[in-house]
Amino acid sequence: MALQDTLEQLRSVDFNNLDVNNVGSWPGPVKIMLMAILFVLILAVGYYWHITDKQSDLDRAEAKELDLRKEYEDKAGQAANLEALRQQKIEMEATFDGLLRQLPTDTEVPGLLEDITRTALDNDLTIESIDLQPEKTTEFYIELPIQVVVEGTYHKIGSFVSGVANLSRIVTLHDFAIEPTDDFPTLRMEILAKTYRYLEEAN
After folding, report:
1. Which is the CATH superfamily of the domain at 104-202?
2. Helix, strand, coil percentages in the chain from 3-state DSSP, rounded to 5
3. DSSP summary character for residue 168
4. For the chain, what are the domain ranges?
5. What is the spatial distance between Cα 147 and Cα 124, in angstroms, rounded to a whole number?
6. pLDDT tens per residue across span 58-106
């Protein structure tokens, strides 16, 4: 009944006659309504200034949690596969050592030149020149270019290129140029063969 009486009193209040300079003289129901409005406004401002900031902090924390969870899952997966990764590392080191053994040392370069010469002769090519070019040093290895000029038929030149590429030492072939000679079907080929030496072996 008290609520109904309060509502009745509010209906009977003439809000135009309220003195804003003397709030204490206002009827009790109007004061209660004013306090309720102020309370709601304070809650709204408090939510905006406090809860909104906390919500932003919460969103950032949730995003960080997702990142940390993913990082944890990645590391947990690595830990679960640690033994397999160690074995893979051992295999990669063995492969790397095997590749290093295919790189010539200073003392093996003459032997490599002999292998290239023998491959050319085995394919009935005429050797015009095989010249060792100046070394080029990179961050991890030394490059040893060898300029090769030979003459022969198309198929024999192809067999020679295949034979050089399949030598026991690593040799890559670059910048080839083939041109006809006056003695058809003989062709003249210029090609740059490169082999490599691991930089530590050079020191």
Report:
1. Ribosomal protein S6/Translation elongation factor EF1B (3.30.70.60)
2. 60, 20, 20
3. S
4. 1-80, 104-202
5. 19
6. 888 888 888 888 888 888 877 878 888 888 888 888 887 777 666 666 6
